[in-house]
Design goal:
107 residues; alpha+beta; Glutaredoxin; 6 strands
């Protein structure tokens, strides 16, 4: 999430809403969000309903959810999905911002 915070203003400038979905319950999630003063939307998902919609994996041997990034357009269509193999396997913000720009140019 530090990576997203770092370039949050660039996502805003691109007209993109950042939503982070986490496995914690509502109280724990709200506490974490408040303590870390995160600028983007956080969605607690303790029942894994969002996880299941997008096919995000849980690896018990790696202590939980593997990272996933999904770029969803205004119509609700997933235009890009990346499933990480470990907690550091996430695309760079610049890569996501370039995808956003290319989708906007096509539209």
């Amino acid at each position: 999430m530090a990576q997203l915070r770092q370039d949050y203003s660039k996502f805003e400038e691109a007209g993109t809403m950042v939503v982070v979905v986490g496995p914690e319950g509502e109280d724990a999630f709200a506490s974490y969000w408040s303590k870390n003063d995160l600028p983007f939307v956080g969605l607690p998902d303790p029942e894994h309903s969002v996880l299941k919609l997008y096919g995000q994996e849980i690896k018990l041997f790696k202590l939980g959810r593997m990272p996933a990034q999904v770029l969803v357009d205004e119509s609700g269509v997933a235009r890009f999905v990346h499933y990480g193999h470990n907690m550091s396997d996430i695309p760079a913000n610049e890569e996501i911002l370039q995808l956003i720009a290319s989708l906007r140019d096509r539209g």
